[in-house]
Amino acid sequence: MLSIKNLQASVEEKEILRGINLEVKAGEVHAIMGPNGSGKSTLASVLAGKEDYEVTGGEVDFMGKDLLEFDADVRAREGVFLAFQYPVEIPGVSTTNFMKTALNQIREHHGEKPLDAVSFLKRMKEKMKLVEIDQSLLSRSLNEGFSGGEKKRNEIFQMAMLEPKLAILDETDSGLDIDALRIVANGVNALKSKENATIVVTHYQRLLDYIVPDYVHVLYKGRIVKSGTKDLALELEEKGYDWIKEEAEAQA
Amino acid sequence: MKEIAGNTIISSLTTQFEAFEKQLNGQSKSAVHQVRRAALAQLQTAGLPAARDEEYKFTNLTRALVKNIDFDKSAPAFALESEAIEGVQVEGLDAYKLIFLNGEYNESLSDTISVDGLTVLPFQTALKEKQETVEQYFGKNAALESDPFIAMNTAFSMNGVFIEIADKVVVDKPIALYFIGDSANAQLSYQIRNLVVAGKFTQATIIEKFDTVGGHESFTNVVNEFSVDHNAHIQYFKIENDSDKAYHVSNTYASQEGSSNFTANTIALNGAMVRNNLNIRLDGEGCESHMNGLYVLKGKTHVDNHTVVDHVKANSYSNELYKGIMDDKSRGVFNGKIFVRQDAQKTNAFQSNKNVLLSDNATINTKPQLEIWADDVKCSHGCTTGQLDQDALFYLQARGIQKEKARAILLRAFASDVLENIDNEAIKNYLEAIITERLEA
Amino acid sequence: MSNDDQILEEFTSKEYEFGWTVDLEADEAPKGLNEDIVRFISAKKDEPQWLLEWRLDAFKKWKEMKEPTWPNVHYPKIDYQDIKYYSAPKKGAAPKSLDEVDPELIATFEKLGISLTEQKRLTGVAVDAVIDSVSVATTFKDTLAELGIIFCSFSEAVKDHPELIRKHMGSVVPVNDNYFAALNSAVFSDGSFAYIPKGVRCPMELSTYFRINAANTGQFERTLIVAEEGSYVSYLEGCTAPQRDENQLHAAVVEIKAATNAEVKYSTVQNWFPGDKNGKGGIYNFVTKRGICEGDHSKISWTQVETGSAVTWKYPSCILKGDYSVGEFYSVAVTNNYQQADTGTKMIHIGKNTKSRIVSKGISAGKSQNSYRGQVQVMKRADNARNHSQCDSLLMGDQCGAHTFPYIDIENQSAQVEHEATTSKIGEDQIFYCQQRGIDEESAVALIVNGYAKEVLKQLPMEFAVEAQKLLALTLEGSVG
Question: What is the pTM of this model?
Answer without folding.
Answer: 0.81
